[in-house]
Amino acid sequence: MSAIILGWDPASWDRWNYAAAVDRVAASGLHVEPWQAGRDIPAGTDAWLVLQGTHGPGLLGHGVVAGTGAGQPLVAFDALLPLGDHVPADVLTGALPGAPWQRLGENAGGASVELGPGEELHLRDLWARVGPGQGPDPTLPAPGTYPGNAVVHVPANRYERDPEARRACIAQRGTSCAACGFSFEVAYGEIGADFIDVHHTVPDSQLGSTYQLDPLTDLVPLCANCHAMAHRGVNAARTEVELRQAIANAGYLRGETASPEELEAQRIAREILGPG
């Protein structure tokens, strides 16, 4: 089993606060919910949430089965559309003429149905075209557009995704990479303004129940490349100092873009000094 559809009819199954789940995914990238699927579902199975009932069918979101809790699959939703913004029935039918959601039955509260390989591919393609945008990190594919085993993820905890903590870190440290100096705004202009990853420097072993984040000391701005290298091949992430040392040891020279004022100053200097 590689993918399933989860049917949800708000009129007959209202055990979760869907609006709060949407907000949680938008803020942290994940919401975990136990699901009454009526059967065992292997961990790692892609799960597609389909709205049923009066306003359905409509495609609402994507998640992955993370495990089992209290005899129910735990679904880690990584993309959820607000009610009313779901992919509507006519678009769904055009993409999947076989209408696999009809196999869920009427008024399903927490039912599930397995998708065939062809149906899953069509659904992924539809989601990539009309589903949610890229979310908090546009350098990563939108959740659900690729199979989980086809995407390499850099671990990002909730502190790195917290918008208020990010703003505080960037206000203190700026948007240039603390390791290599790369600036998305310098490289890409307006579209790169205010964009940078933030890296949480506190090891997981120190994140006890009393831990409180200090965004000015515990977060550091890193470009996507340096963020990946901070995590690659180690249990405890490398520090910005270790990254700078690795860059220096490799003989890499940090590039910079000269401003118009710097170029004009160089021209005047050449005129004063004359040919040499």
Largest sheet: 6 strands, mixed
Mean pLDDT: 76
Low-pLDDT runs: 150-154
Radius of gyration over all CA atoms, rounded: 24 Å
Succession of helices and strands: EHEEEEHEHHHHEHEHHH
From the helix content, strand content and strand pairing, which structural class follows?
alpha+beta
Provide the spatial order of strands within the biggest beta sheet: 2-5-4-3-1-6
The 3D shape can be described as elongated
The end-to-end distance, rounded to whole angstroms, is 74 Å
Provide the β-strand percentage band: 15-25%
Number of strands: 8
What is the helical fraction, as a range of percent? Answer: 25-40%
Summarize the structure.
By secondary structure, this protein is an alpha+beta fold. The chain contains 10 helices and 8 strands.
Structure description:
This protein has 276 residues and is of the alpha+beta class. Helix content is 32%, strand content 17%. The protein has ten helices and eight strands. It has helices at residues 18-28, 89-95, 117-130, 158-161, 163-173, 184-188, 215-218, 224-231, 240-249, 260-273, and strands at residues 3-8, 31-34, 46-51, 58-69, 72-80, 112-114, 197-200, 219-222. The strands form two sheets. It has a six-stranded mixed sheet with strand order 2-5-4-3-1-6. The longest helix is centred in the middle third of the chain and has 14 residues, at 117-130. The protein starts with a strand and ends with a helix.
